[in-house]
């Protein structure tokens, strides 16, 4: 892609999220979200493959619907309460509508059907941007609304964890697996939103770091399906040794970083007398863990048939930058002991 | 100076037939309600190649209760199979099989029910004169696609070229006639065992598309057959398939994505009139580890800045 256009689009992406972060008026927030959508559309379709164009179209339609719902809800709120301030929403109807609009934006169940297909049509880099950066702006808005006693958030959260777990069970395509993992993690984030928004932010940030690592691992191996991970032991043995740990961190196993948000969320839910909810969420995390384990099984714990028997082939240096991968892998694996400091840092 | 030829006067018999027709027009008899006039159901002009319609559209449909019952049973069985397949693994196969498989036979012709998965067509649909038939070979081991090619174009005033025959697999369907796709992403080569007659065939692979203007997007590659009595193992990597739309090679080429393949087909259109036959033993996919090419064709920059 023309470097100027690429720079403009990335700048537009950054600007959109920043505008949404900095806004206290609903229209400005909506504008930031629209800028994000419009800036990522050419990035998604840059390869002109029909599947990429299909993914772009589906993404645009869902995001436009969500933005329209958001605009409608904020207009309704303005009509009912007389002001456009994001943090002063009191009427339950616009709050519910905005929650649903933002749920469609990020891909929470039951508004999740677009996410696996869209991620499958994209290349890994654009999929990474979609899974990580595009979640920041809607969450900024969700954190500010803070619906007080809303059961809609619990329903969205539980459905997302279950759908994310079950949906990812029978996939062989890595991008679809990451889409379902995204849905499951978003479910965890939404579950605790009304009780402790700082935990939602913590979960979002750890999810972004872990997903970043995972996408970069797959990008280094140039693999888009489980079978293509089979030869990573010959190409990058150190990465093959660390990748299962990254995946288990996504699954939420101690002593890795991914355990931190899950533990704190379950603790918070138990404190709020929602023990059955906490149980269902913990059980559905097992479903997600199954497909992460399956990925690590295929990648590291078994040697699939291939023609690389004998000595490892000539390991050429990869053209991809490995520093981001190294830093994010460290963060994915080793941040659990820093839980108190992290929680203190992110308290809203 | 000869006199110019004058058109002859029509004979008396012709005049009387015209009179009879006029009488019939003046006193039209009401026909019994046996079937529709062609004008009603097909429009005034029947394209050569379209079958003559002498029934109302609803007449061939079987509205019987047993047919509905069988249909419901079949679809519910397919639905149950879909649910139970999920417990086994992706696409009904355990994950170990997905990881270990290097060859998969998709179509082999071992019984009459295997012919049900294929559709044959030729240019008779547009009014041409080629014929094509599909039958099982000897000992029910192979399938034989045979017929005659005729490149005489149909006389409908707009078709200029003709003469093709094709065999295409039917779209796989899940319960309640939903489209199902083949997932060949663990493979990278198409493996056929054929015995042809020396003619150049073309293999067409159609993938799942989204927009309606992409519905004729097909990825093609050639299959050159040798005519001998010996079987021919053909392995074509999927990276060699190029994109065409309605038979025209597109400028903007991209590799074939293997995760949602709908149909595969074989076409013959080599402008050589006469009989042809192609015997197919099996159609399968395999994984060639030595083949690392992603796409065989370069796309040159169009409208380059000078």
TrEMBL record, chain A:
<feature type="domain" description="NADH dehydrogenase subunit 2 C-terminal">
    <location>
        <begin position="289"/>
        <end position="342"/>
    </location>
</feature>
<keyword id="KW-0813">Transport</keyword>
<feature type="domain" description="NADH:quinone oxidoreductase/Mrp antiporter transmembrane">
    <location>
        <begin position="23"/>
        <end position="285"/>
    </location>
</feature>
<keyword id="KW-0999">Mitochondrion inner membrane</keyword>
<feature type="transmembrane region" description="Helical">
    <location>
        <begin position="92"/>
        <end position="115"/>
    </location>
</feature>
<dbReference type="GO" id="GO:0005743">
    <property type="term" value="C:mitochondrial inner membrane"/>
</dbReference>
<dbReference type="GO" id="GO:0006120">
    <property type="term" value="P:mitochondrial electron transport, NADH to ubiquinone"/>
</dbReference>
<feature type="transmembrane region" description="Helical">
    <location>
        <begin position="151"/>
        <end position="170"/>
    </location>
</feature>
<keyword id="KW-1133">Transmembrane helix</keyword>
<dbReference type="InterPro" id="IPR050175">
    <property type="entry name" value="Complex_I_Subunit_2"/>
</dbReference>
<feature type="transmembrane region" description="Helical">
    <location>
        <begin position="177"/>
        <end position="195"/>
    </location>
</feature>
<dbReference type="InterPro" id="IPR001750">
    <property type="entry name" value="ND/Mrp_TM"/>
</dbReference>
<dbReference type="Pfam" id="PF00361">
    <property type="entry name" value="Proton_antipo_M"/>
</dbReference>
<dbReference type="InterPro" id="IPR003917">
    <property type="entry name" value="NADH_UbQ_OxRdtase_chain2"/>
</dbReference>
<keyword id="KW-0472">Membrane</keyword>
<feature type="transmembrane region" description="Helical">
    <location>
        <begin position="60"/>
        <end position="80"/>
    </location>
</feature>
<comment type="similarity">
    <text>Belongs to the complex I subunit 2 family.</text>
</comment>
<keyword id="KW-1278">Translocase</keyword>
<keyword id="KW-0249">Electron transport</keyword>
<keyword id="KW-0520">NAD</keyword>
<keyword id="KW-0830">Ubiquinone</keyword>
<feature type="transmembrane region" description="Helical">
    <location>
        <begin position="274"/>
        <end position="293"/>
    </location>
</feature>
Automatic annotation (TrEMBL), chain B:
<feature type="region of interest" description="Disordered">
    <location>
        <begin position="29"/>
        <end position="51"/>
    </location>
</feature>
<protein>
    <recommendedName>
        <fullName>Complex I intermediate-associated protein 30, mitochondrial</fullName>
    </recommendedName>
</protein>
<dbReference type="InterPro" id="IPR008979">
    <property type="entry name" value="Galactose-bd-like_sf"/>
</dbReference>
<dbReference type="GO" id="GO:0006120">
    <property type="term" value="P:mitochondrial electron transport, NADH to ubiquinone"/>
</dbReference>
<dbReference type="InterPro" id="IPR013857">
    <property type="entry name" value="NADH-UbQ_OxRdtase-assoc_prot30"/>
</dbReference>
<comment type="function">
    <text>As part of the MCIA complex, involved in the assembly of the mitochondrial complex I.</text>
</comment>
<dbReference type="GO" id="GO:0051082">
    <property type="term" value="F:unfolded protein binding"/>
</dbReference>
<keyword id="KW-0496">Mitochondrion</keyword>
<dbReference type="Pfam" id="PF08547">
    <property type="entry name" value="CIA30"/>
</dbReference>
<keyword id="KW-0143">Chaperone</keyword>
<dbReference type="GO" id="GO:0005739">
    <property type="term" value="C:mitochondrion"/>
</dbReference>
<comment type="subunit">
    <text>Part of the mitochondrial complex I assembly/MCIA complex that comprises at least the core subunits TMEM126B, NDUFAF1, ECSIT and ACAD9 and complement subunits such as COA1 and TMEM186. Interacts with ECSIT. Interacts with ACAD9. At early stages of complex I assembly, it is found in intermediate subcomplexes that contain different subunits including NDUFB6, NDUFA6, NDUFA9, NDUFS3, NDUFS7, ND1, ND2 and ND3. Interacts with TMEM70 and TMEM242.</text>
</comment>
<feature type="domain" description="NADH:ubiquinone oxidoreductase intermediate-associated protein 30">
    <location>
        <begin position="107"/>
        <end position="280"/>
    </location>
</feature>
<dbReference type="InterPro" id="IPR039131">
    <property type="entry name" value="NDUFAF1"/>
</dbReference>
<comment type="similarity">
    <text>Belongs to the CIA30 family.</text>
</comment>
<dbReference type="GO" id="GO:0032981">
    <property type="term" value="P:mitochondrial respiratory chain complex I assembly"/>
</dbReference>
């Amino acid at each position: 892609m023309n470097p100027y256009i690429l720079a403009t689009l990335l700048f537009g992406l950054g600007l959109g999220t920043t505008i949404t972060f900095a806004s206290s008026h609903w229209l400005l927030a909506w504008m930031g979200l629209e800028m994000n959508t419009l800036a990522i559309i050419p990035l998604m379709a840059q390869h002109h493959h029909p599947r990429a164009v299909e993914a772009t179209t589906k993404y645009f339609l869902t995001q436009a619907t969500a933005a329209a719902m958001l605009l409608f809800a904020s207009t309704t709120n303005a009509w009912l309460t007389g002001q456009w301030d994001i943090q002063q929403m009191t009427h339950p109807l616009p709050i519910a509508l905005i929650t649903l609009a933002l749920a469609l934006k990020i891909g929470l169940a039951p508004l999740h059907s677009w996410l696996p297909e869209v991620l499958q049509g994209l290349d890994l880099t654009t999929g990474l941007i979609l899974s990580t950066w595009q979640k920041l702006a809607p969450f900024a808005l969700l954190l500010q609304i803070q619906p007080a006693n809303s059961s809609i958030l619990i329903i969205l959260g539980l459905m997302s964890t279950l759908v994310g777990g079950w949906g990812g069970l029978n996939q062989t395509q890595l991008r679809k697996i990451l889409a379902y993992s995204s849905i499951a993690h978003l479910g965890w984030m939404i579950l605790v939103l009304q009780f402790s928004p700082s935990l939602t932010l913590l979960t979002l940030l750890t999810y972004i770091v872990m997903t970043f690592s995972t996408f970069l691992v797959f990008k280094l191996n140039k693999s888009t399906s489980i079978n293509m991970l089979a030869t990573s032991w010959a190409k990058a043995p150190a990465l093959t040794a660390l990748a299962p740990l990254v995946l288990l961190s996504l699954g939420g196993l101690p002593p890795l970083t991914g355990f931190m948000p899950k533990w704190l969320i379950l603790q918070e839910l138990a404190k709020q007398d929602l023990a059955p909810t906490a149980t269902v969420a913990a059980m559905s995390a097992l479903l997600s863990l199954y497909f992460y384990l399956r990925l690590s099984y295929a990648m590291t714990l078994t040697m699939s048939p291939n023609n690389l028997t004998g000595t490892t082939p000539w390991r050429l240096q990869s053209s991809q930058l490995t520093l981001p991968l190294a830093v994010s892998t460290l963060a994915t694996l080793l941040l659990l002991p820093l839980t108190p400091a992290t929680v203190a840092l992110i308290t809203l | 100076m000869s006199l110019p030829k004058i058109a002859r006067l029509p004979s008396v018999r012709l005049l009387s037939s015209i009179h009879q027709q006029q009488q019939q027009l003046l006193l039209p008899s009401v026909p019994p309600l046996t079937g529709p006039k062609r004008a009603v159901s097909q429009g005034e002009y029947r394209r050569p190649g379209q079958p003559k319609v002498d029934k109302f559209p609803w007449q061939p449909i079987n509205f019987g209760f047993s047919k509905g019952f069988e249909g419901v049973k079949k679809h519910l069985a397919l639905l149950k199979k879909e649910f139970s397949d999920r417990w086994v693994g992706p696409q009904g196969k355990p994950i170990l099989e997905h990881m270990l498989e290097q060859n998969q036979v998709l179509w082999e012709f071992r019984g009459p029910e295997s012919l049900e998965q294929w559709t044959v067509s030729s240019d008779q649909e547009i009014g041409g004169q080629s014929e094509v038939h599909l039958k099982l070979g000897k000992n029910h081991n192979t399938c034989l696609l045979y017929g005659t090619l005729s490149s005489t174009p149909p006389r409908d005033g707009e078709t200029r070229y003709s003469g093709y025959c094709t065999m295409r697999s039917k779209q796989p369907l899940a319960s309640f006639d939903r489209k199902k796709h083949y997932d060949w992403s663990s493979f990278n080569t198409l493996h056929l065992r054929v015995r042809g007659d020396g003619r150049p065939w073309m293999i067409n692979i159609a993938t799942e598309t989204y927009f309606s203007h992409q519905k004729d997007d097909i990825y093609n590659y050639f299959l050159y057959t040798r005519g001998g009595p010996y079987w021919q193992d053909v392995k074509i990597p999927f990276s060699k398939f190029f994109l065409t739309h309605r038979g025209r090679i597109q400028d903007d080429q991209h590799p074939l994505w293997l995760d949602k393949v709908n149909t595969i087909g074989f076409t013959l259109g080599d402008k050589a009139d006469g009989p042809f036959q192609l015997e197919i033993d099996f159609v399968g996919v395999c994984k060639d580890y030595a083949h690392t090419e992603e796409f065989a064709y370069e796309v040159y920059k169009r409208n380059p800045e000078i």
